[in-house]
Automatic annotation (TrEMBL):
Keyword Glycoprotein: yes
InterPro entries from the UniProt entry: FAD-bd_FR_type, Fe3_Rdtase_TM_dom, Fe_red_NAD-bd_6, Ferric/Cupric_Reductase, FNR_nucleotide-bd
Keyword RNA-binding attributed: no
Entry-linked PANTHER family: FERRIC REDUCTASE TRANSMEMBRANE COMPONENT 3-RELATED (PTHR32361:SF9), FERRIC/CUPRIC REDUCTASE TRANSMEMBRANE COMPONENT (PTHR32361)
GO biological process, one term: iron ion transport
Domain FAD-binding FR-type: 329-463
One Gene Ontology MF term: ferric-chelate reductase activity
Protein family (similarity comment): Belongs to the ferric reductase (FRE) family.
Protein name: FAD-binding FR-type domain-containing protein
Taxonomic classification: Eukaryota, Fungi, Dikarya, Basidiomycota, Ustilaginomycotina
Segments crossing the lipid bilayer: 42-64, 119-141, 161-182, 203-222, 237-256, 268-286
Membrane topology field: Multi-pass membrane protein
Localisation per UniProt entry: Membrane
Length: 676
């Protein structure tokens, strides 16, 4: 099985030489096998060892705080320097989430990894570089019956380089697939976020392509030297290799961020198709050589296919159990999950309330019940397909709310999850076709759609060990923060909790209307207090494709601060709403059929347990805790940010600076960056 061990084919090869030349021929074979196969295969095994250790280490770091929250809380302050300088700081400069243009080209960008990610990538690069550039031994031409001529040294080096790069490329294809699937074993064990998994996936892919390129060039040169290049194109194994190489090249090119973002669905479809063709190409490229020495590489390719199939099978099964229910009575034997669509914020946001089987949903007001199959809970994300609007393809959305209820009619347990969808230009825009429908009184009708749900994905953050929570949200990124507000109010997870929300368009406040109403009522019983600061950064939400809040395009000064907290009189509240509308470039339109502005509910309500302030402009730094929450050397603080990439980078850098000043026993940082 090991490719450098002599097999029957090699022994047959030796027999072709006269007895006095056999010793040289044997040496030549051994040196060749060592150079071509042993060096790169051992380096691949070393890489596998490091890879498995890193995945297990990530798994420990991810799951231990959930299993031993108190012990982790004690340990965290001691790890603060490691987190500040290694785990959370960008490798160079201040950008991590926001791509950096290369050579001033906006379509060619690069994502700066975090320092530890950078070190892992550097190690990966060296493991790939070393076996390509070092450990070569060649035999003198007079003792090398396989390469006897004057160009013996060059020919040997060409051949070894061609073989080594092939082994390295094929050996890393299983890693490439392990770092691709949402449900691959590595994703499940490591608990790494999809963003981190994708970072490694992209870099491994680039290395594999470079090696495939060197392999292709080296073999082309060898065949030209032998005068057999044209003939090679008549052999199926060669052509399968060419096909696999072309597929890899296409995959790398189509993965350019600019193309990926513009034609996402097209990218996903072609990516899956071309990746499969690449694996099939590699398989036949090796298999058709009919060499027992290459058995290991055939197995590696089969493992790759198995990893892909595992991911797809789990996702298919998950979709099935989550979205399709068998019915014991009635005419319909199966019931597919359905979503009731309601439009908010003047049709800029759609709320999808998706009905699901109760056993798949974790109610946000109750404590988590650990189980073998993870449940859909607020804070996780799902992949959502809406076949009526888009036949193939699914889209990721965060679960804003999850409830298990008892159906008053049937007394059966039922459940739903809410996702808040920011209307963009593709599938989400098609949702708007439902918005026009009105009943006879001109009121907007809610609409029902069949949906397929796959999830949960992207493990919910474990913040059980933190005392205070400071949430930063940009635009519809507030969806990600709502579950933390629930954890604070219903389960008293934190001593204090504050949300700082930046938005360009005040209409978006309507998104918080129902959730805050519920939380305010629930807080009467639990005595929890919530602090919410809204920063109205600009009113450019009507611009197509523009993120709702960015830090770059807002005035630097911090102007007037307005408040709608509970200690205001109704007259004061009225002047606040009026003040905002006057200042606004584009006054909020009237909501569908409602006859009131979309944000009035939130701005005019008298909150009992929520201190709700609205400001114009951008926040001045990140230290937005209420005065009552003094920094304490005994307490820990978590800063969570969800929003556009510049916002996440800004929050990360501010938090790192804050941690360096050691006001708190510990400050933790988490970012979820999206282009919503
Ligand atoms: C983990 C995660 C959670 C998210 N949660 C929410 C949420 O709670 N609410 C919300 O409004 N949005 C959320 N998004 C963003 C949401 O998935 C996209 O806005 C949506 O898929 C756009 O669909 P579209 O066809 O209308 O987009 P288009 O108008 O075609 O494209 C708009 C942008 O969305 C990207 N996009 C399109 N399709 C996908 C896809 N299948 N996967 C990833 N990106 C895509 C495009 O590259 C482009 O940048 C989330 C994204 C991620 C990665």
């Amino acid at each position: 099985m090991l490719p450098w061990v002599l097999d029957d084919h090699d022994l047959g090869f030796l027999k072709k030489y006269p007895p006095e030349k056999r010793e040289d021929a044997l040496q030549s074979l051994l040196v060749s096998n060592r150079n071509s196969f042993k060096v790169p295969t051992i380096s691949i095994f070393v890489e596998y060892g490091i890879f498995i250790s890193l995945i297990l280490a990530c798994g420990l770091v991810h799951y231990l705080p959930r299993l031993f929250p108190t012990a982790c809380k004690k340990l965290q302050p001691k790890l603060a320097p490691i987190r500040t300088h290694l785990l959370e700081a960008p490798l160079l400069g201040r950008r991590n989430a926001e791509p950096i243009p290369l050579f001033g080209l906006r379509w060619l960008t690069f994502q700066m990894p975090l320092r530890l990610e950078g070190i892992v990538l550097l190690a990966l690069f060296l493991i790939n570089l070393l076996p390509i550039t070092a450990f070569y031994t060649t035999l003198a031409a007079e003792h090398n019956p396989r390469y006897p001529g004057p160009h013996s040294h060059r020919q040997q080096m060409q051949r070894y380089l061609a073989d080594r790069t092939a082994v390295l490329a094929i050996g890393q294809v299983p890693l490439l697939f392990l770092m691709a699937g949402r449900r691959s074993p590595t994703t499940l064990v490591s608990g790494l976020s999809m963003n981190a998994i994708m970072l490694y996936h992209r870099w491994i892919a680039r290395m594999v392509w470079c090696q495939a390129f060197i392999h292709a060039v080296a073999w082309t040169v060898i065949r030209i030297d032998q005068g057999r290049l044209v003939k090679m194109y008549q052999t199926p194994y060669w052509n399968w290799g060419v096909a696999a190489f072309m597929m890899f090249g296409g995959l790398i090119f189509l993965s350019l961020r600019s193309l990926r973002q513009k034609w996402y669905e097209c990218f996903v479809f072609l990516h899956i198709l071309m990746a499969l063709l690449a694996v099939v190409g590699i398989y036949f490229h090796i298999h058709l050589l009919h060499s027992s020495s290459f058995r290991l590489f055939v197995i590696m390719t089969e493992i790759t296919a198995a990893i892909w199939a595992f991911d797809r099978a789990i996702r298919f099964f998950n979709r099935l159990i989550t979205s399709v229910q068998l019915r014991r009575s009635g005419r319909q034997l199966v019931k597919v999950a359905s979503a009731d669509v309601e439009f908010l914020a003047n049709n800029k946001v759609a709320r999808l309330r998706i009905s699901l089987p109760a056993w798949r949903v974790q109610d946000g007001t109750q404590s988590d019940v650990p189980g073998l199959v993870p449940k859909l809970a607020a804070g996780y994300s799902i992949m959502l397909s809406v076949p009526r609007l888009q036949i193939v393809g699914d889209h990721p959305f965060s679960i804003a709310k999850a409830r298990v209820i008892r159906d008053p009619k049937s007394e059966e347990r039922a459940a739903f999850i809410d996702v808040l969808v920011n209307i963009q230009g593709g599938m989400t825009k098609k949702l708007l076709s439902l918005a026009g429908s009105k009943d006879i009184e001109g009121l907007a009708l809610s609409r029902s759609l069949s949906v397929i749900v796959d999830g949960p994905y992207d493990h919910q953050l474990s913040l059980c060990a933190t005392d205070h929570l400071l949430l930063y949200a940009g635009g519809i990124g507030v969806t990600y923060c709502l579950p933390f507000l629930e954890q604070h109010v219903y389960r008293g997870k934190f001593k204090t909790c504050k949300l700082v929300w930046m938005l360009r368009d005040l209409d978006l406040l309507e998104v918080l209307d129902e959730p805050l109403g519920e939380l305010d009522a629930a807080a009467d019983a639990t005595k929890a207090k919530l602090f919410i600061d809204v920063y109205h950064t600009a009113s450019r939400a009507s611009e197509k494709g523009a993120p709702i809040a960015t830090l770059e395009e807002v005035p630097a000064e911090l102007p007037s601060s307005l408040s709608s907290s509970s200690d205001l009189t109704p007259q004061e509240e009225k002047s606040i709403t009026g003040g905002l509308d006057d200042d606004d470039d584009e006054p909020a339109e009237k909501a569908e059929g409602g006859g009131r502005t979309a944000n009035e509910g939130v701005l005019k309500r008298r909150w009992r347990n929520i201190t709700f302030n609205v400001h114009h402009g951008r926040p001045d730094g990140i230290r937005h805790l209420d005065e009552s929450v003094a920094a304490s050397r005994a307490d820990s603080l978590s800063v969570v940010c969800c929003g556009p990439r510049p916002l996440c980078d800004w929050a990360r850098n501010e938090t790192l600076q804050w941690r360096r000043e050691r006001e708190w026993a510990d400050i933790d940082f988490h970012a979820e960056c999206v282009l919503w």
